[in-house]
Task: inverse folding
């Protein structure tokens, strides 16, 4: 799994606007800080390949080289028993 934080002022403003409007409808505001991010989960990759991952503080490659022919955008729905994941859309890549 690869997690990448995102810094985008417009995304922060959108989140605040949505939360404010939902609050007007009676929904409780989130008490955790908003942390926009992308999460990359790769399946079928040998564990040895993932050893190439490095944190920001370390020198070297950030991610291993991986050949992929598609990627999927997932929606995660959090439940008390754990997360449930649904594919929103799959994107085919032109493999060269």
Result:
């Amino acid at each position: 799994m690869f997690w990448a934080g995102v810094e985008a002022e417009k995304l922060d403003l959108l989140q605040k606007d949505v939360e404010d409007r939902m609050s007007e409808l009676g929904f409780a505001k989130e008490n955790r800080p908003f942390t926009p991010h992308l999460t990359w989960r790769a399946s079928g990759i040998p564990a040895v390949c993932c050893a190439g991952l490095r944190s920001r503080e370390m020198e070297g490659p950030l991610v291993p080289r991986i050949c992929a022919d598609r990627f999927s955008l997932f929606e995660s729905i959090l439940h008390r028993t754990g997360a449930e994941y649904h594919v929103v859309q799959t994107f085919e890549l032109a493999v060269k």
In short: DSSP finds two helices and four strands in the chain. Residues 9-24 form the longest helix (16 residues).
